[in-house]
């Protein structure tokens, strides 16, 4: 199994993840670090860890392109059967790898992987647990059908996630929502849900979660791409309508109304237009605060 971590100028906190991986009750994994053009001392730090040989580490430096391009690079490089992403400001509980390996031994052949829980540093689950009666599910259905809340941790079969298109790159933008690939996989495969904590998260001031409004304004084409995908593949009118509202807002940021035509639903876009304008104004205000 590969644990991969896209990182950018996170030398100040990356040691937290490294130490947690060194504490794992199973070391049957490799850690792949995708350095997205860091200008701090990340490379020196990682090279020191590689020299220590406490765990197996692979380090790949690339030109800065944003987190989604880090995922693209990781999927190109991963050779193990399974993989999961642990962000550079998060870490794993000491038994996290062992829990995953135990569950993977029981994973049916036709499943894409596992979906487990994130928790804060006090052990509180982020959002809500997964319904215990679920034996298989789509990731999107967890939120839209079963009303699960909060970030969840994903473990995917490498051969499956490599089957789907890479995240696109838009000029002068550095963010595309990662749910694009996950929604595509949902169309063909199920996940096995497990109510086990696989990742301890910390939402830092310089992270994408804490800067979502700024990300939204700076990367409208990346977000529009995700919204169009969700309009096309959304299972309910509510889901398609919500994403059409966001698409209108993105089109206003890009000043490119042709994005609205790509939704291929004039009536849906018309219905979403006024709420989309209001969302755009709200985002502009929040991005300044």
Strand content: 15-25%
Rg from alpha-carbon coordinates = 19 Å
Estimate nothing, just give the exact number of structural domains. Answer: 2
Number of strands: 7
- The CATH homologous superfamily of the largest domain is termed Spore Coat Polysaccharide Biosynthesis Protein SpsA, Chain A
At the third CATH level, what is the topology name of the largest domain? Spore Coat Polysaccharide Biosynthesis Protein SpsA, Chain A
Under the CATH scheme, the architecture of the largest domain is Alpha-Beta Complex
The shape, in one word, is globular
Q: Give me the number of helical elements.
A: 12
CATH C-level category of the largest domain: Alpha Beta
Mean pLDDT across every amino acid position: 95
Characterize the main sheet: 7 strands, mixed
Instruction: Specify the structural class.
Output: alpha/beta
Helix share of residues? 40-55%
Terminal Cα span: 41 Å
């Amino acid at each position: 199994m590969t644990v991969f971590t896209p990182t950018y100028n996170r030398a100040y906190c990356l040691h937290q993840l490294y130490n947690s991986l060194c504490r794992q009750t199973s070391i049957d994994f490799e850690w792949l670090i995708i350095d997205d053009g860091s200008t701090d001392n990340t490379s020196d730090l990682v090279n020191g860890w590689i020299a220590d040989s406490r765990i197996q580490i692979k380090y790949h430096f690339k030109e800065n392109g944003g987190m989604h391009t880090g995922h693209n690079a990781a999927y190109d490089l991963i050779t193990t059967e399974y993989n999961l992403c642990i962000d550079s400001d998060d870490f794993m509980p000491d038994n996290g790898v062992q829990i995953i390996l135990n569950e993977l031994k029981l994973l049916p052949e036709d499943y894409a992987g596992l979906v487990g829980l994130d928790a804060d540093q006090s052990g509180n689950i982020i959002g809500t647990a997964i319904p215990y009666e679920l034996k298989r599910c789509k990731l999107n259905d967890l939120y839209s059908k079963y009303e699960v809340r909060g970030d969840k941790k994903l473990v995917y079969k490498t051969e499956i996630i490599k089957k789907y298109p890479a995240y696109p790159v838009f000029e002068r933008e550095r963010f595309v929502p990662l749910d694009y690939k996950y929604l595509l996989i949902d169309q063909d495969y199920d996940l096995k849900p497990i109510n086990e904590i696989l990742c301890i998260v910390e939402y830092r001031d310089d992270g994408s979660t804490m800067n979502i409004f700024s990300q939204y304004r700076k990367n409208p084409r990346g977000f529009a791409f995700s919204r169009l995908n969700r309009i096309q593949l959304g299972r309910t009118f509510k889901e398609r309508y919500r994403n059409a509202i966001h698409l209108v807002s993105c089109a206003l940021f890009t000043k490119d109304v042709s994005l609205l035509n790509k939704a291929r639903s004039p009536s849906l876009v018309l219905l979403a237009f006024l709420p989309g304008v209001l969302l755009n104004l709200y985002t502009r205000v929040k991005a300044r605060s």
